[in-house]
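Priority: medium. Attachment 1 of 2:
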């Protein structure tokens, strides 16, 4: 896996996908909003998505203990593909954009009560954090606590 860097204000940010990677990924997606987003917004969305991915704990070991991101890493003697990381980062970036650029983990909560513990959600709101669902979809077998089954004959 080659280092992917996005430069903003003369500062380098390591990411799992560049704007070109994400543009290529979404080129074949019908109905994607990605092509309507500005270059600068795409850069920031991909950096944010990378940070969200790196908040999780993963199995295995980093390929290089000094690398800036949690991937590439070796898990059960294998290295996850670059394509899966591009897909996860791109989908996450698009989801962050569609949620108005917010970390949506609390955005669906309308009210919280302490007495008798009550939480109500906004109408038509999501009850699960979509960011976590996207990470699960693409990276679940690499997450700590995830299960990877290997059969030997």
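Attachment 2 of 2:
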């Amino acid at each position: 896996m080659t280092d992917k860097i996005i430069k903003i204000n003369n500062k380098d940010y390591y990411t799992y996908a560049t704007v070109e990677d994400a543009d290529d990924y979404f080129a074949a997606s019908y109905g994607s909003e990605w092509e309507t987003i500005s270059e600068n917004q795409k850069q920031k969305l991909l950096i944010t998505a990378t940070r969200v991915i790196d908040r999780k704990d993963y199995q295995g070991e980093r390929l290089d203990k000094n690398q800036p991101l949690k991937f590439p890493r070796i898990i059960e003697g294998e290295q996850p593909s670059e394509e899966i990381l591009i897909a996860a980062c791109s989908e996450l970036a698009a989801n962050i954009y569609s949620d108005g650029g917010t970390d949506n983990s609390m955005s669906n909560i309308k009210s919280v009560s302490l007495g008798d513990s009550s939480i109500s959600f906004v109408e038509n709101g999501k009850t699960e954090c979509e960011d976590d669902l996207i990470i699960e979809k693409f990276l679940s077998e690499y997450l700590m606590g995830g299960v990877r089954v290997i059969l030997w004959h």
